[in-house]
Design brief:
With 392 residues, this protein is of the alpha/beta class. The chain is built from 14 helices and 14 strands. The protein folds into two domains: 197 residues, Rossmann fold; 151 residues, P-loop containing nucleotide triphosphate hydrolases (Rossmann fold). Helices cover 36% and strands 17% of the residues. The strands form two sheets. A seven-stranded parallel sheet has the order 3-4-2-5-6-1-7, sandwiched between helices. The chain has a seven-stranded parallel sheet with strand order 10-11-9-12-13-8-14, with helices on both faces. Strand 10, helix 12 and strand 11 form a beta-alpha-beta unit. Helix 2 packs parallel to helix 3, helix 3 packs across helix 4 and helix 6 packs across helix 8. About 3% of the residues have low confidence.
């Protein structure tokens, strides 16, 4: 099947061709036909599977240039809002698309809302605009909930339901989710009309993805990570941590040991987070150390290695993390650094998934320079040699 088979406009087909897209992905092939017919759709697909183009086709071909605000897309994170905005501008350059999220001044948003056809928003800031009366949702004809399961995980669902109730009942509603959980199904039952359920296969190809783990004391994790980053033949690398504090600790110490690394987590300003993603995607920085805010939603290509510095409690988050590599037929590698604190989470991951994760013997590790908490009154951040590192 080709994009020409979906009955898309010539303008949209030209935009898709310009992006170099030829063959639809599985989620696009299954969801675009009912979307173009105006049906409600619930789509299950992993990050990076092409769902933005799927719902973007309906928006690009069904909205009127002079109709004001006609489409609302809700996303769980600011980064995803910006990413979706950028993608839609490529599909439909004639439409005015804006991203709305917190952490930045609200006044420019109020001004731009008056001229927008499509708003991509995080729930909290969108609800703020509704309460202020600075957004008019009376003409919304296409409502999209992107990463619906993540909305529940992040506690946004009450805000989401308030927003949905402020949209016209006569509309097309599209939910896309990495997993169609019972809560997502219940939400669809409440707010959708006879939705078409589609799903793209989600699996890890064992022939393309190699998974390994090391058993190591916690205070030696950073030395092992630095050693592996130095000796692995790698491209772009993502290192996952469970907390902001650990993320900052790892980045600070990798930099001190001459590893080009950068951090992303929810504690950074929006401009900093945007610059970080751009630097990583453009290859200016080779190692992205992050919390799970970067595991979902963000489109990041060409990741050769995923390191789990800490293992997540939820086995689904592990699947999302490792799905960052071995894409588009390329090979990838996942390396898990396990201390005693990770064993329960590791057992849960193995119980919930059929993965072959090979144990690797620890290499000889040299002690490396450490930057710990800066002493009061000190302006020095020189590494201290001759000690193992720990975040505790």
């Amino acid at each position: 099947m080709k994009f020409e088979d979906f009955g898309l406009s010539n303008t949209l087909l030209a935009a898709i061709k310009k992006l170099g897209l030829v063959t639809p992905t599985q989620i696009q092939e299954k969801s675009i036909p009912p979307i173009m017919k105006g049906q409600d759709v619930v789509g299950e697909s992993a990050t990076g599977s092409g769902k933005t183009l799927a719902f973007g086709c309906g928006i690009a071909d069904h909205l009127e240039k002079d109709g004001g605000l006609q489409s609302l897309i809700l996303t769980p994170t600011r980064e995803l809002a910006e990413q979706v905005k950028g993608a839609l501008q490529n599909f439909a350059p004639e439409l005015k698309v804006m991203a709305v999220y917190g952490g930045v001044s609200i006044n420019p948003q109020i001004h731009d809302l008056e001229r927008s056809h499509v708003v991509v928003a995080t729930p909290g800031r969108l609800l703020d605009h509704l309460q202020r009366g600075t957004i008019n949702t009376s003409k919304i004809s296409i409502l999209v909930l992107d990463e619906a399961d993540r909305m529940f995980d992040m506690g946004f669902i009450d805000d989401v339901q308030k927003i949905i109730k402020n949209c016209p009942k006569k509309r097309q509603t599209l939910f896309f989710s990495a997993t169609i959980t019972p809560r997502v199904k219940d939400l669809a039952k409440r707010h959708m009309h006879d939705p078409v359920i589609v799903a793209a296969k989600r699996h890890v190809d064992p022939s393309k993805l190699k998974q390994e783990y090391y058993d190591i004391p916690r205070n030696m994790k950073l030395s092992l990570l630095a050693h592996l980053l130095e000796h692995e033949n790698r491209g772009l690398v993502m290192v996952f941590c469970n907390t902001r504090r650990t993320t900052d600790f790892v980045v600070k110490n990798l930099k001190a040991n001459k590893v080009s690394a950068i951090a992303i987590h929810g504690g950074l300003s929006q401009n900093k987070r945007t610059d970080t993603i751009n630097s990583f995607n453009n290859g200016k920085v080779g190692v992205l150390v992050c919390t799970d805010v970067a595991a979902r939603g963000l489109h990041i290509d060409d990741v050769s290695h995923v390191y789990n510095y800490e293992l997540p409690k939820d086995s689904k988050d592990y699947v999302h993390r490792i799905g960052r590599t071995a894409r588009a037929g390329e090979e990838g590698k996942v390396i898990n650094l396990l201390s005693n604190a990770d064993h329960d989470n590791f057992s849960r991951i193995l119980r919930d998934n059929v993965f072959k994760i090979e144990k690797i013997e620890r290499p000889y590790l040299k002690q490396i320079g450490a930057i710990t908490e800066r002493p009061r009154g000190s302006h020095s951040q020189r590494p201290r040699r001759g000690r193992w590192l720990s975040t505790t």
